Amino acid sequence: LTGPFLDKVGIGAGSAPAWMAIAQGAEIVTLIFLPKMLKNWGIRGTMMVGILAWPLRYAVFAMGGPLWLVLASLSLHGLCYVCFFTASYIYVDEIAPVDVRASAQGLIAFVLLGAGLVVGSWFAGYVSDMFRVGTEVDYSKVFLVPLVLTVLCAGLFVGFFRVKPARG
């Protein structure tokens, strides 16, 4: 829903994809610093940074402005994606036994980038429709939903995720 949201908050028609490239640029920068983050914060701390970047981003989106802050918050995608998803792949690779490592990586890819995207896209459309009046979508309310969900997920992560020792 980021593209339509950016159009609504004042990005010129058709230019949202160009502005959304901020997110991909942030991914590249975050990837450069990932080894240092893993060394300083460990896998759990690095993943927590990624998890907490999501509700921060959604809070800015729910506020709907100012425009400069909305555009700046696009860079949080780099932290979200790299610190959580990429770190998750690294963690799975470290703890999975050698004989099932490829299958474990395939499973996490399927969950995060396959089924997760399908279910997430469906759910985003459902939430958007819930807060639609005629042709207008109330994005402030729309983005409160993932804000609450990501805060709950952060709580579950803190409460239940424990780092297991790496396998050889």
- Could you report the average pLDDT, rounded to the nearest whole number? 93
Percent helix: over 70%
| Anisotropy-based shape | globular
- Output the strand order for the largest sheet: 1-2
Give the low-pLDDT segments: none
Cα gyration radius (Å): 17 Å
Question: In angstroms, what separates the terminal alpha carbons?
Answer: 42 Å
Number of strands: 2
Largest sheet geometry = 2 strands, antiparallel
How would you describe the overall organization of this protein?
The protein is 80% helix and 2% strand. The chain is mainly α. Strand 1 and strand 2 form a beta hairpin. It starts with a helix and ends in an 8-residue tail after the last helix.
